[in-house]
Specification:
- Belongs to the mitochondrial carrier (TC 2.A.29) family.
- It contains 10 helices and no strands.
- By secondary structure, it is mainly α.
- It has one domain: Mitochondrial carrier fold.
- The protein is globular and about 60 Å long.
- The protein starts with a helix and ends with a helix.
- The chain binds 2-acetamido-2-deoxy-beta-D-glucopyranose (NAG).
- The site of 2-acetamido-2-deoxy-beta-D-glucopyranose has 5 residues, from helix 8.
């Protein structure tokens, strides 16, 4: 009986990963669109193609299933990255938390960024395969890698480029993962707690939807400028370093550079964040239902 009670309050570590995978099934086409947009070349002097143009192009050239090319890599990425970050975050919270006392925001941020950092290391190989598979359809046939699925991609990558290639770019990637996870997971917990504490909300779908939408907004506000900086650094010829680069950019464009692309970022990140937390809360609800009814039977 005591054993059951304990189990009922601790959820399996893979719930976050499974929820993120479900969310990825729904948002994969948006992700694919982003990668294609970023790698799209301007046709002549014309304007860069937009989101809708990109969807149309994928649909026309690769059919409906084209929207799902690289899905296995997307799923493998969530299975590694999100299972690890959610699993570690929940585990750390349960170690630090005192009974009947909410964890303060700075603690949540510290725990979630640690989890995101480690999660990104675990997810790095699948992340590379994911980007490569999504780009593939846009490449000329002789340049395609033609990975059949994520596992095939992993095997080919190790064979052709060596084991260490799986951790290419792991430094910046884990920094981003720490930021992303702190802005998603810690802010969701905080928003949900604030909503519940206001007394106007119950622990139900409405509250989960509002808190996760706000978390998606925070994640976009924090991560989108970082992505802009990343792109600028990667494409910059400026030898004077990041600070100089940002000063120059701010002088030229004002602070507007930080908010460029905010809406497209939110269109991708928002739905994925909302769906992940809604699926996660459903997993937990079902789990509680199973174990509390067990308790009742035993009582
Ligand atoms: C959730 O609870 C709030 C406040 O009690 C209520 O207004 C709302 O309709 C509920 N939503 C759902 C989906 O049950």
């Amino acid at each position: 009986m005591r054993e059951q009670k304990k189990k009922g309050t601790r959820y399996p570590f893979w719930f976050g990963g499974a929820s993120s995978m479900w969310a990825a099934v729904f948002t994969h086409p948006l992700d694919l669109n982003k990668v294609r947009l970023q790698t799209a070349k301007k046709p002549g002097n014309g304007p860069k193609p937009g989101m809708m143009d990109t969807f149309k192009m994928i649909f026309r050239n690769e059919g409906f299933l084209g929207l799902y090319s690289g899905l296995t890599a997307s799923l493998l990425r969530q299975a590694s990255y999100s299972t690890t970050r959610f699993g570690i975050y929940e585990e750390l919270k349960s170690i630090v938390k005192k009974p009947n006392k909410e964890l303060p925001l700075p603690t949540l941020i510290a725990l979630s960024s640690t989890s995101g950092f480690i999660g990104s290391i675990a997810g790095n190989p699948a992340d590379i395969i994911n980007v490569r598979m999504q780009q593939d359809g846009a490449l000329p046939p002789e340049k395609r890698r033609n990975y059949k699925n994520a596992i095939d991609g992993l095997i080919k990558m190790v064979r052709q480029e060596g084991l260490t290639s799986l951790f290419r770019g792991v430094g910046p990637n884990s920094g981003r993962g720490a930021l992303m996870t702190a802005s998603q997971l810690a802010s969701y917990d905080e928003f949900k707690m604030l909503l519940l504490r206001s007394g106007m909300f119950d622990d139900n779908l409405t509250t989960h939807f509002i808190a996760s939408t706000m978390a998606g907004g925070v994640a976009t506000l924090i991560c989108s400028p970082v992505d802009v900086i990343k792109t600028k650094i990667m494409s910059s010829q400026d030898p004077a370093g990041i600070v100089h680069l940002l000063q120059e950019t701010t002088r030229r464009e004002g602070m507007a550079w930080a908010f460029k692309g905010l809406l497209p970022s939110f269109i991708r990140l928002g739905p994925h964040t909302v769906l992940t937390f809604i699926f996660l809360e459903q997993h937990k609800k079902i789990w509680r239902a199973i174990y509390s009814s067990d308790d009742e039977v035993k009582l």
